Amino acid sequence: MPDILVYTDGACLGNPGPGGWGVRILYPDGTVRELGGRESSTTNNRMELQGALAALQAIEPGAAAIVYSDSQYVINGLTKWLSGWKRKGWVTASRAPVKNRDLWMQLDVEDPGRVKWRHVRGHSGNPGNDRADEIASGFAAGKPPILADGWVESNAAPAAADRRRVQYVSLVDGALILDTDPEAHHRRRQDNPQAQARVRTLRELAEFCARHGLELPP
């Protein structure tokens, strides 16, 4: 079974200032889940840590996963520094208290060596990292993007694209209705829909909504 691939990022406007974190999870079957959050006053490092923590909490225990972050602070902390901090009583080599100890302690509980941590260079054209950054930046600015939840990647293998994650959309009396059951979708023809379509990705749903002057559903 291939590993789950996870991308995390954090952003902060002002450092300290309003901040956000973002997570993009790519499952072996081609489906995608995205997460994001915001704090009104925080730091960039805390948002990087919060993104990593949210990623771990979203992964099922025992699942094989690789988590990518563009933060050397996160990667080095988890793979090099954490054991020493605990051994010394949560102080650094210079005897200063470890900053963001509360988040590091939660990460330590969530990740007793169960995932692989990898560094990815930020703003380098990596789609997963770029999307995590987009989510984090959007939440920091108070303009969170639409988050994917169970959508199939448009470039997923055919076997993945044909799974029950496929949804069906109908426009009935100006209202947008989503179905996962094709039979329910076909029965809606009796309601004289203005339009119907099968959508496999969030982008396809967004395009359908744009064609008909509708907003994406929550």
Write structural notes for this entry.
By secondary structure, the protein is an alpha+beta fold. The protein has 2 domains: 4-152, 2-Layer Sandwich (Nucleotidyltransferase, domain 5); 166-211, no CATH class. The chain is 34% helix and 28% strand. The protein contains 7 helices and 9 strands, in the order βββαβααβαβαββαβα. The chain has helices at residues 44-58, 72-87, 101-110, 127-140, 158-161, 182-187, 202-211, and strands spanning 4-12, 17-26, 31-42, 65-69, 116-119, 149-152, 167-172, 175-179, 195-199. It has a 6-stranded mixed beta sheet. Strands 8-7-9 form a 3-stranded antiparallel beta sheet. A hairpin with a 2-residue loop joins strand 7 (167-172) and strand 8. The longest helix has 16 residues, at 72-87. The protein starts with a strand and ends in a 7-residue tail after the last helix.
- Calculate Rg over CA atoms: 20 Å
CATH topology of the largest domain: Nucleotidyltransferase, domain 5
Task: List the strand order in the largest sheet.
Answer: 5-4-1-2-3-6
Which CATH class of the largest domain is shown? Alpha Beta
Let me know the largest β-sheet: 6 strands, mixed
Instruction: Please state the oligomeric state of the protein chains shown.
Output: single chain
Low-confidence stretches: 156-165
Query: Given the helix and strand composition, which structural class is it?
Result: alpha+beta
Q: Judging by the overall fold, what is the CATH architecture of the largest domain?
A: 2-Layer Sandwich
In CATH, the homologous superfamily of the largest domain goes by the name: Ribonuclease H-like superfamily/Ribonuclease H
Distance between termini?
A: 32 Å
SSE order: EEEHEHHEHEHEEHEH
Give the number of domains: 2
Shape: elongated
Kindly report the average pLDDT value. 86
Number of strands: 9
Q: Helix fraction?
A: 25-40%
Total of helices:
7
- Tell me the fraction of residues in β-strands, as a range: 25-35%
